[in-house]
DNA sequence: CATTTCGATAAGCATGCGCCTATCATCTAC
DNA sequence: GTAGATGATAGGCGCATGCTTATCGAAATG
């Protein structure tokens, strides 16, 4: 009935190319993929535990420790013990971190625009809308 | 200006979920991801060298050897020395391979339809069309 | 208070992959 | 022919990742 290729077969190369471009765009800003993902997550609001952050960004909780160390050292995030429960660390982005994240995001989206520019305005809007919808459908 | 999340951030989780679902769908058919990708590539037409196949499926040429071994052993592909250049191996899918691939693809797409079913017909069509377009834009 | 639970951290192990090298057979060019 | 290029294959190295365990400080529970 359906005459089409598999979704994964179409989207996987696309995502690989997007990620490669993203890594290239991130390099001048001196932050890694994971660092950027963490900054983005914290830009949406602070997080009470590192486990929650790891869960939110889809990473192993033992994996992001080094990333947090480097971000903190660079002054892009703060990581203070929760006064209410001193086992937990309150994670928040700093103003410098926010600026860094916004600048990096601008470069990333600039690159993505080159791809999207080939689409008709209608297709472009529909694609972004659907991508957002589907991403939310599988995530939570 | 552009008020949206990064494309990669939206599509990556989606692709991960699609691939996980694909692996699950493939299991009853007794073939791996790479085997399915190889079968799909050969279903579109035979290939003269393994290096060309590896290139086509985006894999390392030393990585697919084991996959080809198993596919050949299972009778799903043929791998014969090219009479014209006996260094090269002519790769082709067998009828059994084609049946296996078609059956697996049907299961995979059935799962994908569950996701796409939440979309309006217009959005669904636009999304598939754009995904195909973008995949072709980054691939070659 | 003593036991148990929980969060962060470090360390170890297995996996899968990209990359690089070596080997062997074959083909091509001179 | 002889030298160099090409294809398949095997093996090893390094990296990133997921998963598991151990430790330690701090809470919570009884």
UniProtKB/TrEMBL annotation, chains A, B:
It holds the Pfam family MarR_2. Residues 4-136 form the HTH marR-type domain. It comes from the Bacteria. One of its GO terms (biological process) is response to stress. Keywords: DNA-binding. InterPro entries: HTH_MarR-typ, MarR/SlyA-like, WH-like_DNA-bd_sf, WH_DNA-bd_sf. One of its GO terms (molecular function) is DNA binding. SUPFAM superfamilies: Winged helix' DNA-binding domain (SSF46785). Gene3D superfamilies: Winged helix-like DNA-binding domain superfamily/Winged helix DNA-binding domain. This is DNA-binding MarR family transcriptional regulator.
């Amino acid at each position: 009935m359906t005459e089409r290729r598999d979704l994964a077969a179409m989207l996987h190369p696309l995502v690989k190319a997007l990620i490669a471009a993203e890594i290239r765009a991130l390099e001048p800003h001196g932050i890694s993929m994971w660092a950027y993902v963490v900054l983005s997550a914290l830009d949406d609001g602070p997080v009470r535990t590192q486990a929650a952050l790891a869960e939110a960004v889809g990473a192993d909780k033992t994996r992001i420790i080094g990333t947090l160390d480097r971000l903190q050292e660079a002054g892009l995030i703060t990581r203070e013990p929760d006064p209410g429960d001193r086992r937990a660390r309150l994670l928040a982005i700093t103003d410098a971190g926010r600026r860094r994240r916004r600048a990096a995001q601008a470069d990333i989206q600039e690159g993505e625009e080159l791809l999207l520019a080939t689409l008709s305005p209608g297709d472009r809007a529909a694609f972004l809308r659907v991508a957002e919808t589907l991403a939310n459908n599988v995530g939570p």
